[in-house]
Each structure stands twice: as C-alpha cells, then as structure tokens.
Known about the structure:
Largest sheet: 8 strands, mixed
Radius of gyration: 19 Å
Structural class: alpha/beta
Number of helices: 12
CATH architecture of the domain at 42-49 and 66-201 and 270-349: 3-Layer(aba) Sandwich
Distance between the termini: 36 Å
Order of helices and strands: HEEEHEHEHEHHHHHHEHEH
CATH class of the domain at 42-49 and 66-201 and 270-349: Alpha Beta
Strand order of the largest sheet: 1-2-4-3-5-6-7-8
Strand content: 5-15%
Amino acid sequence: MLREVGPPWLGSPWPGPRWPWWGPDLQTLRDTLWPLRLPEEGAATVRFPLDPIPSAPGAAPLQQPQALVGLSVAPAPATATPPALVVLLHGLGGSSEARGVRRLGQTLAGAGFGVLRLNLRGAGPGRPLAAGTYAAACNRDLLPVLHQIAALAAPAPLLGVGLSLGGTVLLNAALAEPGLLAGLVCVSSPLDLAACSDQIGRPRNRLYQRWLLRRLIALTQDDPFGLDPAEQARLQGPGAPGSIRAFDAAITAPRWGYPSVEAYYRDASPLQRLLAGAPLPPTLLVHALDDPWVPATATQQLAAAAPAALCADVVLTAGGGHNGFHARGDGPSATWADQLTLRWLQRQLS
Length: 350
C-alpha cells in the first residue's frame, strides 16, 4: 500500500498540489510549460581540472586540459560569511543552467549559503572542456573535484544536493567517501537504475523517453574532441538506440568500463549498499509516490528497512511528480522541495 512517510520533525509532508499543476505529469513539466523568469545572480565560473582520458581513435589529440565547470553563486547579502558551501548537481540531460537547479541555488544563496552549481562531464558550459559524457557512478571524475571544492569551502563544511540523477551521482560518491560531504539531499533520485529504465520505457512515458534520448544523443555527438567511429555508427541508422536502456548499452556502460548495461545498472545503483547499512553522511531522500519517471519503490524499501547504520531521513509524498513538488502555499520562486531542502540543511548546521 502506498503511503506518505516523513520524519517527526517534518510534520505534514505534502500540502497538496498548487493550482493548476494537478497530477504527476503537470507537476513534472511545470518548469517547461511555465518557466519562471529568474533574476541573474552574477555567478562566477570556476574550472576544476580533470585527469585526462584518451581522445577517440582517429580524432585529433586533445589540445587543452580537461575540466568540469561550476557556477559559483555568492550568498545574500554578499558580505556574509556562508555557514557552508552547497554543491548542486543537475539531472540526466540537464546542466547548471536548468531552471530547477538555478531556482534552488537562488533559494539557498538567498538564505546565506554559498552555492556552486556543478556541470558533470560534457554538460552545459562544460561541454567544450571535457571529452565524453557522465554516468550514474562517475567517481573517477567527481571525487577529485569534490576534494577541490571542499578545499575552496574550508573551513566551512561542504554539503551536497542532487536533483534526479544528480542525487544518484552524489550518493555513489558519498558511499565511496562518507566523510567528504557533511550532508546530502537527493530529490527524485534513482536508487535502482534497472527499475528506473523499465519505468521510463513504459508506453505512457514514450514522449518523455524520446525527449531524453534526443538530448543524450545530441550531447554525445556534440563532443568537440571527436567521437569513436564505432560509437558514431551505433548512434545512427536503423540500429540507433530507441530507448534509454539501449543508449546506456551502446554508450554509457562501455565508456565507464562496464561489461554490459546490466552490470552498469547493478553496480551503479546505490540501493543494495544502502539496504546493507553502508555508511553515509547525514542524508535526506525526497521522493513522490506518483513520480512518472523514477519509481518510488526503492525509496519505499529503504524507508521500510530503516537499517540502523543508515543516517538518513526519508520523505515520501503522495504527489509531486518527478522533481516537481509545486505545492499549495509555494512562493513565486521556490517549490515545496526547495524549501524542505533549505530547512533540512539548516537543521544539519544547527
């Protein structure tokens, strides 16, 4: 039976949808259908060097160091000393410029946090600076960069917030090095990649999958450092991927050293390690039971198991869609999940 879950401090987890964003799909698509006009925040660009990877066979040698690109947003007021730095990570097919990422970043900065919106390999402003693409587990990239960001934040603590797949990426990093982040929030994040792939492949999600797939293929083909001819062949013609699973089998799994897409989904999914009580920093997992993209089943398993070693709060809401959470009483520039994230991070520091 589906039911809402929330820790005692939360109170009533979900006040219901904000008019007119009723139902999971309108919740999910609200930022696309009715984009907010967010103010410019004067973010400073920060480049974080990466260990180089070989250029594609037949491509020109890489002529510049590779890097991930972050956009650093100063707290308000600008003269304040932030209590912590929050690294904010986008979801699949997104970037630091996604509306939800920018809106949450401005909410946190407005409350006095330092914020760094990070782009994963090949995403957004970082596309010209790094060959290849990212995966749900990309610790080879992310852990060295998080150490660089933690050095920038010191002596203030480093916190993490991931939206959708960005939360999975940060969870995998935190499981590898539990002491690196002082706290972590994951909103609508896949814990079981195989179940998520099955969900997005359902007939009701045909348009969603087609939209995501176009973005992923374009991101891959736009690599300024060149593309492996075998990969290019797999992306074109009658054998081109027709699903996210097929794309992961053709591109993501082999690029990140997995022998198959099944191995990638198994090894990059945090669920089993979390159920086994693997250590984590204090963590908040937020998921809607009606999420049309990422099934809530894995998060429900985690809430039901409640392993003693898991230092996590789990919030399951009746509505909210996928990274939507546009609720009654929302202000014009933040969602219920944005405000929940802010409150939880403030609780960790207090």
